[in-house]
């Protein structure tokens, strides 16, 4: 199950995580964002113990997305060892997301 993160707990839940973390920057009104959610849930199950899926609502938490240059959603940023390593913008097929993640798992 994805972890909801916000501006206050982002450092603890994402940057300090022992796992690779993929952060899904989204908004309630974003239809493509809703289509990515089940893809990420399947990947989280497949890579249990190695991957954490985090979700951040950009409308409720403007500071963190701005600091990572998020200008459009959906936006997925892969964090490994506390650092942003890859960014995927827009609705992506499952194979593209998994290919990007595999380098860090």
Question: Keywords for this structure?
Answer:
105 residues; alpha/beta; 34% helix; 4 helices; five-stranded mixed beta sheet; 5 strands; Glutaredoxin
Outline the structure in words.
The protein has 105 residues and is α/β, with parallel strands linked by helices. The chain has one domain (3-102): Glutaredoxin (3-Layer(aba) Sandwich). It has helices spanning 10-15, 31-46, 63-67, 94-102, and strands at residues 3-4, 20-26, 51-57, 75-80, 83-89. It has a 5-stranded mixed β-sheet.
Helix-strand layout with pairing:
Elements: E1 3-4, H1 10-15, E2 20-26, H2 31-46, E3 51-57, H3 63-67, E4 75-80, E5 83-89, H4 94-102
Parallel strand pairs: 1-3, 2-3
Antiparallel strand pairs: 2-4, 4-5
